[in-house]
Design goal:
Elements lengths: L6 E3 L6 H17 L4 E4 L9 E4 H15 L4 E3 L5 E2 L1 H7 L4 H9 L6 E3 L2 E5 H27 L1
Antiparallel strand pairs: 1-4, 2-3, 5-7, 6-7
């Protein structure tokens, strides 16, 4: 895995046709097999099937679909600590705006020396709460418009 538990594949790093074919084969397999574990017979031999959890196979299919569409993919464990720039990029805001959110205590963070670090799980929780708040505001505006 990459530095600090972040792994990335840039757009164009993968053959889109191969990714699309693999994603389609995994989706077809998942649709016809409801097991909790998936056995993958690779070039290692018929007797040595690679067994992966169903959720991992679903995620792999999704990653392959994104790659087939020419998109980059980044995987981060929930406990990875992000810089302010990485966190701002992850939720698509400016770094100064993110720092304002941190200072207003909307998102927990830790100080490492003189630098702020944000847990990815805390960033996801903030994003979830913010999305809920936005949906509620949009619903309220819609209700007012209907009156």
């Amino acid at each position: 895995m990459g530095a600090k538990g972040i792994s990335a594949i840039r757009p164009g790093d993968v053959n889109a046709q191969v990714a699309n074919r693999a994603a389609r084969r995994i989706r077809d397999y998942l649709a016809s097999h409801q097991d909790d574990e998936i056995a993958i017979n690779a070039e290692i031999g018929e007797d040595d099937a690679l067994v992966v959890p169903r959720q991992a196979a679903v995620m792999l299919a999704h990653v392959l679909e994104l790659l087939a569409d020419g998109q980059g993919v980044q995987i981060m464990p929930n406990n990875v600590m992000l810089t302010t720039q990485q966190a701002a990029d992850a939720i698509n805001v400016s770094r100064p705006y993110l720092i304002d959110l941190l200072e207003r205590e909307n998102i927990p963070y830790e100080m490492v020396g003189t630098h702020r670090r944000i847990a990815f799980a805390d960033l996801l929780e903030y994003k979830r709460r913010d999305d809920q708040r936005r949906r509620a505001a949009a619903d309220e505006v819609t209700a007012i418009g209907e009156d």
